[in-house]
Design a protein that fits this description.
By secondary structure, this protein is of the alpha/beta class. The chain has 29 helices and 15 strands.
Length: 987
């Protein structure tokens, strides 16, 4: 099953929070402490089972309200609605309401809370809140049918309890249900033995019985009168205080003043008078405070207060306009300052551009340069510069060409001339020399001379041939140099012609640039042509700035004229009301003073308005008070006719009554406060008297109600039948008047109690003696005592036999169930925690290979199996982190076994794991997320990093939410990690 959408409307700190499109796998919710994570855990813990009134949960604002949309295992959709403490309402997608087992299966609330919602509290032997359900928790953790097997010990205990209720622990005949029958048998035996011995004293016993009965009757009559007397004293003792209060109230109500107040005062007007008094006092205090503030603030202007109030509309309008005028004055002042700065800046720039202008704007504006195009001048200046470069380059190339021609001419003079006959002559001479030498050597030595002659001729031939070939290269080089010299001459002629054309173009461009300089009024020697473009830009910019300057100057002049008219209008009002001695002369100097006066007038008007408002409200209160006073005590008003005349006025215009002043008005308000105070005092006195009268009636009703039939019967018994016609209050007065004080009543009450106690004890002894005599007479008068005794014995034996049989059946059934239970546990112990052990081995990196149950399976503990195969007796031998890993493994294995696959919630359950085991735990939880929806609540950023790393390595993706201050928002993993590390703020 998957929670698709969750709407938390009211649950502790979580209010109006919606988690939409929740993914079916791993859902991570991160937030700091007190952000609401544990509250979220409680939401999911109670979503499918409802909330009990005894549950210790964070309180709702109004009523617990949670709604969820689910996707069931078979693909159907369902919705759950949790309202207050009612059971959850479950609806299928068609709107059909179904039972909660449709979505949660047969998983009970205890199992879901202890298995599927895992906090640190759950990862221990005895989680908090388990209480007496330890065995149930252990059966849930172990599984394998123990959920049903756990009932067997309880059934055995019940069978033994029933057996012990019949015959005790050992079946002794004198205990429990055996006891009655057994004692009956013993009594029958004793009766049978004693029946034969009782024959005498019958007559003597009967005579004594008659005496005892007569004495009992006399004692009862005396006891009855004493109890009646005691009952009357108890009545007087209980209501003696009420009697005294009635006496006091009657004396209080018996005065003339009390009768006048009770009959004449209009109590229905008292609350109205109190309200008027409170309102009058509050308004009078605030009126006086305002009056003192008006006196302190207005000062000498207080004499003009009537004119100020008369000109109320004009002052308000002037105050409304003053804000805009002040803003415009500031704008004018700022504009004039800016205009002056602009003028100085423009003139300085004019001096930089051309000193001949001498700051005269007209000279700049007279320059007709608007038709000049910047791009055209720019092109011509670029062309002029390019033309100059081309002329310089042409002159350089011509000079360079002339130099190259001179070099070629010099090279031609250094090369030798080529003569083929010279080489032939040299060959002939050398051949002749070698032949002659060879001939001479032949004469001396035949072989060497011939060799020298032929060899010399060949060598000479080869040498001369090589020299001739080298001379041929010189000839080719000479021919090449001559051709180069001719080509250079042709190039020089072409370049000279092109150079002339470029010089003509340069002269034409120079003339055009001079024309531009003339248009701008620049002497030709004062500016280089290259600076002409910048000069034109500055001139055009100056003309633009001067134009803007003149426009602004004209606008500010118009604004000044308008403001002068408005300020003069305001100052006229200030002069009339005495706030200014005369009209201002300088707008900029005196305009602010006029506006300050207007603001002061507005402030004074507001204070006077407050004073006037208080007077109106006080007049209204005074008129209401006069109506009440005229209705009850008009005589009070005759002593202050002036104040009554003032208060009877309209209250709207203090100048309406001739001779009326602020002081007189204030005195009238103070007098009304005194009148209302006196009226309230009399009203409260009348109210107290009325309450005393009602209290007296209440006391009488209480006394009459307490005077019940028992008290009436007691009074009739003692006083002889006067209780029917006399009132209970009169009876109480009669009794109370017989005693000096309440202590005397109590003393008499104590004496009667002792007398009654003695009579009761004596009567009890007499009744015991009467019973003894009657029993003895009955025993002596019975003839078939022996038959009755035997019958008693037989009946007791008949009752005892089925009880003994039932006692044996219950004990044998308990023994059989206990033996079957032990055999079943021994058989299944080896397979209980196999899957949990595999998870524990993976979680601990095979430092531990398994988990074994305790010797007593229902004991809340386990054994950890080490890598060496040793079993550690109990989890107390493990470290806290390893112990929590063990209990986490047990729960995860049980979660995998249970169907349906409900959502799993972990609330910071991995905080005590180190880095390695935390990664392994997240890897295991990632496997669980393939079949279950897993919610991980954490405040640790490293947990987020591990989850991202494990899911990325396995090709999965988790969903991340941020929780802050009860608000839940979807985020990316990196953003959630940064938030938990404190790198980002919660917005």
């Amino acid at each position: 099953m998957q929670i698709k959408n969750l709407h938390i409307l009211d649950f502790g700190i979580l209010r109006n929070q919606t988690l939409s499109q929740i993914k079916p796998g791993m859902v991570v919710i991160g937030g700091f402490n007190r952000a609401g994570k544990t509250t979220f855990l409680q939401v999911l813990r109670h979503l499918f089972y409802g909330i009990k009134r005894s549950a210790k949960l964070p309180p709702p604002a109004q009523e617990y309200r949670v709604e969820a949309e689910l996707v069931l295992a078979d693909g159907r959709e369902a919705s759950v609605r949790l309202h207050g403490y009612a059971q959850p309402e479950v609806y299928l997608d068609g709107g059909e309401r179904v039972d909660g087992e449709v979505i949660r299966g047969r998983i009970d609330e205890f199992t879901y809370e202890r298995l599927f919602t895992i906090s640190l509290n759950e990862l221990c032997n005895l989680p908090e809140g388990v209480g007496g359900e330890v065995t149930k928790l252990q059966s849930v953790l172990l599984g394998a049918g123990l959920t049903d097997v756990v009932v067997i010990p309880q059934l055995c205990a019940e069978l033994k309890k029933v057996a012990e209720g019949i015959g005790g622990k050992h079946g002794s005949p004198g205990v429990r249900m055996f006891k009655e029958s057994y004692q009956a048998i013993l009594k029958g035996l004793k009766t049978r033995d004693e029946a034969l011995a009782q024959v005498t004293v019958y007559e003597e016993t009967r005579r004594r019985l008659a005496e005892v009965r007569s004495e009992i009757a006399a004692t009862k009559e005396e006891l009855s009168r004493a109890e009646a007397d005691l009952l009357i004293l108890e009545f007087a003792n209980q209501y003696y205080g009420d009697y005294q209060q009635l006496q006091r109230i009657n004396q209080l109500l018996g005065t003339d003043e009390a009768e006048r107040l009770l009959d004449g005062f209009p109590l229905h007007r008292l609350e109205k008078a109190r309200h008027l008094k409170e309102l009058n006092s509050t308004l009078l205090r605030e009126y006086k405070e305002t009056f003192l503030r008006v006196e302190g603030v207005l000062g000498s202007h207080l004499t003009h207060y009537q004119q100020i109030l008369h000109c109320r509309a004009e002052i308000k309008e002037a105050a409304r306009q003053s804000a805009g005028i002040r803003q415009q004055l500031e704008h004018l002042r700022t504009g004039l300052d800016r205009l002056r700065r602009d003028e100085i800046g423009i003139k300085l720039e004019m001096d930089e551009v051309n000193r001949e202008w001498q700051g005269d704007f007209k000279k700049v504006l007279a320059l007709n340069c608007d038709h000049l195009r910047m791009n055209e001048i720019s092109w011509k200046l670029a062309e002029l510069h390019s033309c100059k470069e081309r002329v310089a380059e042409g002159e350089r190339q011509v000079e360079e060409n002339y130099g190259e021609q001179g070099i070629i001419r010099e090279l031609l003079l250094t090369l030798p001339s080529l003569d083929p006959g010279k080489y032939f002559r040299r060959f002939c001479i050398l051949s002749l020399i070698f032949l002659c030498g060879g001939y001479l050597l032949t004469l001396a030595q035949n072989g060497f001379g011939l060799f020298l002659g032929v060899g010399g001729v060949l060598i000479s031939g080869f040498y001369l041939l090589f020299s001739f070939l080298q001379a041929r290269e010189v000839r080719d080089k000479r021919r090449q140099l001559e051709e180069d010299f001719k080509r250079k001459e042709e190039i020089s002629v072409q370049r000279l012609a092109k150079l002339e054309e470029e010089k003509k173009a340069l002269a034409k461009l120079s003339v055009e640039i001079l024309e531009y300089q003339k248009v701008l009024g620049i002497p030709t020697k004062e500016i280089l042509p290259e600076l002409l473009l910048d000069y034109l830009k500055r001139v055009q910019d100056l003309k633009r700035r001067i134009g803007l300057y003149q426009e602004e100057e004209e606008r500010l002049s118009g604004l000044r004229r308008n403001l002068l008219d408005e300020v003069n209008s305001l100052s006229a009002l200030a002069v009339i009301l005495g706030y200014l001695p005369e009209q201002p002369k300088d707008l900029l100097e005196d305009g602010a003073i006029v506006l300050e006066c207007i603001q002061e007038m507005a402030a004074h008007l507001e204070l006077l308005g407050q004073l006037e408002d208080y007077e109106k409200r006080l007049f209204n209160v005074g008129q209401d008070g006069l109506r009440i006073l005229q209705e009850y005590k008009e005589g009070w008003l005759e002593f202050a006719p002036e104040q009554v005349q003032v208060l009877n006025g309209s209250g709207q215009d203090r100048t309406g009554a001739e001779g009326e002043t602020m002081t007189e008005i204030r005195h009238s308000f103070e007098r009304m406060d005194e009148w209302l105070s006196a009226l309230i005092r009399e009203g409260e006195r009348a109210l107290d008297l009325k309450e005393e009268k009602e209290r007296a009636e209440h006391l009488k009703r209480g006394i009459n109600q307490a005077f019940n039939f028992r008290v009436k019967a007691a009074w009739q018994k003692i006083r002889g039948g006067r209780g029917e016609e006399v009132e209970a209050v009169e009876i109480l007065a009669t009794v109370c008047q017989e005693f000096i004080s309440l202590d005397e009543v109590r003393r008499r009450h104590g004496e009667l109690e002792k007398i009654i106690s003695g009579l009761q004890n004596h009567l009890t002894e007499l009744e015991k003696e009467q019973t003894t005599m009657e029993n003895r007479l009955e025993a002596l008068a019975t003839s078939d005592k022996l038959a009755e005794a035997q019958k008693m014995i037989d009946e007791a034996r008949g009752r005892l036999e089925p009880l003994a049989r039932k006692y044996a059946v219950y004990n044998i059934a308990a023994l059989i169930l206990q033996r079957l239970h032990e055999a079943f546990l021994e058989k299944t112990k080896g397979e209980l925690l196999k899957q949990a052990g595999e998870i524990f081995a993976k979680l601990t990196g095979e430092a531990y290979l398994g988990i074994a149950p305790a010797d007593d399976l229902l004991t809340p503990d386990f054994k950890a199996v080490t890598a060496g195969g040793r079993e550690l007796e109990g989890t107390a031998l493990l470290s806290r982190g390893t112990r929590e890993q063990l209990f986490l493994s047990v729960r995860l294995s049980r979660i995998r076994e249970i169907q349906p696959a409900l959502p799993v919630i972990l609330d910071d359950s991995l905080v005590n794991f180190d880095v390695k085991h935390t990664r392994q735990a997240i890897d295991i939880l990632t496997d669980l997320a393939l079949t279950h929806q897993v919610f991980i609540l954490t405040c640790h950023p490293e947990i987020i990093e591990y989850i991202v790393e494990v899911n990325r390595a396995r090709g999965h993706a988790a969903q991340y939410w941020r929780m802050a201050g009860g608000r839940i928002d979807p985020v990316e993993a990196g953003e959630l990690g940064s938030y938990l590390r404190g790198e980002t703020l919660d917005l």
